Amino acid sequence: MRKKIFWFALLCTTLFSALLVNATTSHAAEKTYTIGTDITYAPFDFQGSNGQYTGIDIDLIKAIAKEEHMKIQLKPVGFNAAVQAVEANQMDGVIAGMTITNARKQQFDFSDPYYYAGEVMAVAKNSKVKSLSDLRGKKVALKVGTQGAAYAKSLQKKYGFKITEFDQSNDMYNDVITGNSAAAFEDYPVMAYGIQNGIKLKIVTKPAQGGNYGFAVKKGENPELLAKFNKGLKALKKNGQYNKIIAKYLGKSSVAKATATAQKQDNSLWGLVKQNKSALGNGLLQTLYLTIISIVLATIFGVIIGLMQVVPAKWANWTSSTLIYIFRGMPLLVLALFIYIGVPNLTGNKISAFVAGIITLTLNEGAYTAAFVSGGITAVDGGQMEAARSLGLPYGKAMRRVILPQGIKIMIPSFINQFIITLKDTSILSVIGILELTQTGKIIIARNLQGFKVWTIVAIMYIVIITLLTWLSKAVERRINK
Amino acid sequence: MNAVDNNRVVVTDLVKNYGSNEVLKGLNLTVKNNEVVCMIGPSGSGKSTFLRCLNKLEDPTKGKVVVDGFDISDKKTNMNKVRESIGMVFQHFNLFPNLTVLENVMLAPVELKKATKSVAEKEARQLLAEVGLAEKADASPASLSGGQEQRVAIARALAMHPDIMLFDEPTSALDPEMVGDVLDVMKKLAKQGMTMIVVTHEMGFAKEVADRVVFMADGHIMEEGDPQQIFDHPQNPRTQDFLRKVLNA
Predict the structure, then answer these.
(1) CA of A280: how far to CAs of A284, A436, A459, A462, in Å?
(2) Which of helix, strand or coil describes residue A33?
(3) Structural domain boundaries, residue A127
(4) Does A422 lie in the same domain as A364?
(5) CB of A447 closer than 8 Å to CB of A47
(6) Is residue B120 a contact partner of residue B109, using CB atoms and an 8 Å limit?
(7) What is the CATH classification number for the domain harbouring A81?
(8) Do residues A46 and A210 lie in contact, with contact meaning Cβ atoms separated by under 8 Å?
(9) Cβ distance A170 to A442 under 8 Å?
(10) Is B127 near chain A, with CB under 8 Å?
(11) Number of structural domains, chain A?
């Protein structure tokens, strides 16, 4: 038995390393730079109605790459995830409407500024708030880590307001629209673009404490990438392409066109499904991949660790208890960020968000699985093992033929439960930028601002696949219990 | 079968501790081939623990236990091998509920490659017939009465062709009307010459079937002898006291 456990463990380790290696072999040959972008920061970074990412940042970096003959791969993962990925060497650079500040210069090297933007305060259309001094005692919505947030925080003491922070611009806007918060702070071009595209807010202050947007790399890393960006930017400004890009998103005609499309769009539930069917379909597929791979790996991992908990070997019991303690005790969100951002910092090897997500779910769900596997085995009457051993059956055979078949019956409801939890937990992986169903929902909302309807669609999709998974599990349960 | 000197079990100075609690305080016992030994005594005297030390379900703390010529107090002895020739019957039967009656009996011979499936099945059906349960072969253990379950458990132990059978209070968990059937099977076994060590409260069975009766109390063997000697002329005051209580109950 011990030998078998060893081989199982070896198999698992090999599998993991294979995944890791796969994710890191892209170093060879010509260097491809991975660039993180925001996803909900129109007009700089957002998803167009065709599902492609677009915006000033995207067009600019693509034009510069062409100019400088660089190979780049864009990773639209959101501002926070992108910034952290660069810090963790998971990505080479970030372009995400990122304001150049002294604090950020401690961690990043910035390119020459490519855009100047000031911060404005926006309030609901019917709000009576007209100036900063009207904010006393009220709540203000901010987006985590942005220049707008920094600006608002610098004013907080003076004007005496409270702060709520959000990860997504759209959540911040909605908090103001619904009246939870009195105002939001945002970069002027972003806010202006949003309002022209249907966000029900109005700008009440002049752009202030302006900042320069810059392209960033981790401090001391990728100097050649930075140099190429600067050179390319200069060239684009000279040949007029830069102005063309800006005008495409912020010029008068572009705004009119965007407003027209926004009004033309069919925003019924079914209309939204039709418009976004490829994005939603891909998100659903990613969620299913994550779920299926994680369920398989977590079950293998969990059964091994669960068995290690009950075998008569102190070192195995101890190892198992420790693993369960750590991975069950850690919130999934923290574990996901730790593995995606922390592990590359420790090992120097990049891992893709997908692989990090699979590892996260395997460890977390596996720890829960291990707990009920060992519980199920322990629940089998002790006399069963004694009777089996007294017949001369070795421990492994007794386990396999007598104890496990009884234990598994006890465990089945927990297994089904765990499968469903695993499916739902995949949504938490949106924090590391995996484009699964929840992340897809966030991105669609960032574009069309139809939060309620899109979340309804996403919720129904989850319910449907959970129902299917439950049916499948119950069918398997009936067959086993026959 | 390598009992050269005709001794199936030789126990020397057996001590068993649970923490600081000494349960067996230096026991000596020899059981010969074909002998039926009944162990009697008050609850908590260590009878069951003694029995469980003979197939190492309990690890002896000190002393030497030789069963069928194997020194099982030696860590290097392959216990799985030794256990194949020691059948054990438990108070609570411990049939495997995930298997049918027939599969319960066949499991060990097939898993341990003692017989092919078809041979094992033929033998299992024969054993079930001998314990009077031929028609229950395909039933699930859950559908049997306690007495039937215990007879299946005996058949299951016999399927490995053991040299010795250990019985740990085999009738204590049974309704009174079931006890007779189980004891009948055990008597038949004794007549066939099986070496048996039986921990029991059935004084009638001990009197009728045992070649030797061993009385235990407080982790010691207080007295042993043939049934007439123990039941009719007990020497030790503890034995006298115990028998007075159980026989006049």
Answers:
(1) 6, 9, 12, 11
(2) strand
(3) 117-211
(4) yes
(5) yes
(6) yes
(7) 3.40.190.10
(8) no
(9) yes
(10) no
(11) 3
Bridge partners for A73 per DSSP = A34
CATH number, residue A306: 1.10.3720.10
- CB pair distance less than 8 Å for A389 and B84: no
| Residues in chain A, overall count | 482
- For residue A9, is it within any domain? yes
- Here the tokens at position A112 are 């020459």
A26 found inside a domain: no
Contacts of B157 in chain A (CB under 8 A): 390-391
Test A387 with B160 for CB contact under 8 angstroms. Answer: no
- Asked whether residue A287 falls in the same domain as residue A354, the answer is yes
* Chain A positions in Cβ-Cβ contact with residue B160 (cut-off 8 Å): 391-392
Residues A245 and A361 in one domain: no
> A426-469 pLDDT, tens per residue?
999 988 888 899 988 988 887 777 778 899 999 999 999 999 99
Nearest chain B CA: its distance from A387 CA (Å): 6
Quick one: A186 exposed, middle or buried, by C-beta within 10 A (0-12, 13-18, 19+)?
A: buried
A36 plus A83 within the same structural domain: yes
Query: How far are the Cα atoms of A27, B102, B195 from residue B189, in angstroms, in the given order?
Result: 76, 20, 9
**Which of B90, B96, B108 is opposite residue A392, by nearest beta carbon?**
B108
Cα(A286)–Cα(B74) distance, rounded to whole angstroms?
58
Is A406 an 8 Å CB contact of chain B? yes
Summarize chain A as % helix, strand, coil (round to 5).
65, 15, 20
- Peptide linkage before A43 cis (omega within 30 of 0): yes
Sign, CA dihedral B49-B53-B54-B57, equals positive
The alpha-carbon gap from A270 to the nearest alpha carbon of chain B, in Å, equals: 51
Q: Is B136 on the interface with A (CB under 8 A)?
A: no
Q: Does B170 touch chain A (CB under 8 A)?
A: no
Residue of chain B whose alpha carbon sits nearest to that of A481: B98
A138 at B interface, C-beta within 8 A? no
Q: Is A316 inside any structural domain?
A: yes
Mutate to test the interface with B, among A384, A386, A390 (most CBs of B within 10 A): A390
Q: Which of B55, B111, B112 sits opposite A390 (nearest CB)?
A: B55
Q: Encode chain B (249 residues) as per-residue pLDDT tens digits.
A: 444 568 999 999 999 999 899 999 999 999 999 999 999 999 999 999 999 999 999 999 999 999 999 999 888 999 999 999 999 999 999 999 999 999 999 999 999 988 899 999 999 999 999 999 999 999 999 999 999 999 999 999 999 999 999 999 999 999 989 999 999 999 999 999 999 999 999 999 999 999 999 999 999 999 999 999 999 999 999 999 999 998 876
**A chain contacts of residue B111, beta-carbon cutoff 8 Å:** 393, 397, 401
Residue tagged 């490829």 (tokens):
A278
User: Is the CB of B111 less than 8 angstroms away from the CB of A383?
Assistant: no
Q: Hey, which residues 363-382 in chain A have their CB within 8 Å of chain B?
A: 381
Flag whether A269 is in a domain. no
Give the global pTM.
0.71
For the stretch A98-156, pLDDT in tens is: 989 888 999 999 999 999 888 999 999 988 898 898 999 999 999 988 888 989 999 99
